[in-house]
Design brief:
32% of the residues lie in helices and 14% in strands. It is α+β, with helices and mostly antiparallel strands.
Length: 357
């Protein structure tokens, strides 16, 4: 893992052909097998949305339903941390254990874990706590997280024995980002749901982005691979890592706020600073350091400039968020079928982001 100081130059914004974009999205949706599919694209602030799927549409338009984001919730957590840092309320180098349980004896490696380590998956923590699996396996396909509450996540962190020295290796961790959420709540004296709403959702006008199921009929229904419907996911104490639900239209608004030149850019200095900060590359990892990351996004090079993206999946739904800084292009996609090896959802959404001029 290495630090990154320079970003790839972005390509200039081109004129938008809305009819061509609509055709592009329609063709892409045809490659995705799911009861509900939404592909939404913003190009220079001009939005095009395609909806489809094998199920009959319900009374609420697919693009206005709330979809489970799973790990695509993490960019929201990252933006929240960046804004709190810009406000001077916390620092990236603050130690999580000191904020969660001041004075409590913990393993020396746990004591060294900072907020930055938690967000960037460099804390040395495993993907999930070791004691998570015995209670989750019997309910793996229906409710693996619901019986593992917030206080248990915190206790698991405080007694953890990290696998690697913090800051030395990258290992994707829902556990770590969940701990970040509880740490920020403790540091600010504000519940996570309230904090996220105050600092991110409300300022960006994301009225259809929620941390729990919405009113009856407003939530998309997830499905197993065989098409069997699933109940709404309960993420238990792993809220910051994957609890958000959002509409594709709200997701476009969130992405547009990250894209230079898009309409509706925030005027609040701390939010503007946070939106800039989360797009800045901070580390590389993997063979020849080929994989680049910002605080919260994966970053890949393309002929049209760098792309930043994050995907997520729950027991029966999938989501993809991505944008090209400086080019005016953003893509949000959702689908209501459980992910599987031959699934084309992520590849299709990623292609829209990386192959569109």
């Amino acid at each position: 893992m290495t630090d990154v100081t320079d970003a790839t130059a972005a390509a200039p914004v081109k004129a938008v052909d809305s009819s061509a974009t609509a055709q592009l999205l329609a063709e892409a949706a045809g490659r995705i097998d799911a009861p509900d599919v939404v592909l939404a694209m913003s190009r220079g602030g001009v939005r095009t949305v395609h909806t489809g799927g094998s199920a009959e549409p319900g009374p609420v338009a697919r693009e206005r339903l709330h979809y489970e984001l799973g790990s695509a919730s993490k960019p929201f957590a990252g933006l929240l941390l960046a804004r709190l840092v810009a406000q001077g309320r916390v620092r990236y180098e603050d130690r999580a254990a000191d904020l969660l349980a001041p004075g409590l004896p913990v393993h020396p490696a746990v004591r060294r874990i900072t907020l930055r380590h938690l967000l960037t998956h460099t804390s040395g923590l495993p993907g999930l706590p070791a004691d998570f699996y015995p209670q989750a396996v019997p309910r793996w396909s229906t409710d693996p997280y619901g019986n593992y509450p917030a206080d248990r996540v915190v206790r698991a962190f405080l007694r953890a024995r990290p696998r690697h020295r913090p800051g030395t290796r990258w290992h994707y961790s829902n556990f770590a980002v969940s701990v970040l959420g509880h740490t920020l709540a403790a540091a600010t004296g504000t519940p996570w749901e309230v904090l996220l709403h105050q600092q991110v959702l409300a300022p960006l006008g994301l009225e259809a982005t929620l941390l729990r199921p919405g009113p009856d009929g407003t939530d998309a229904t997830g499905h197993r691979r065989d098409g069997t419907p699933l109940p709404a996911l309960d993420t238990g104490g792993f809220t910051a890592a994957g609890a958000l639900r959002s509409s594709p239209l709200d997701l476009l608004t969130f992405l547009e706020a990250h894209v230079e030149g898009a309409s509706g850019s925030p005027t609040d200095p701390s939010l503007a600073a946070a939106l800039t900060e989360v797009t800045r590359p901070v580390l590389r990892r993997g063979w020849r350091h080929a994989h680049t990351h910002t605080l919260t996004w994966f970053q890949h090079p393309t002929p049209y400039g760098p792309v930043l993206f994050h995907a997520g999946a729950t027991l029966g739904q999938q989501a993809f968020l991505g944008f090209r800084p400086g080019t005016g292009l953003a893509v949000a996609a959702t689908a209501t079928r459980r992910v599987h090896r031959a699934d084309t959802f992520v590849a299709t959404a990623y292609g829209l982001l990386t192959e569109t001029p």
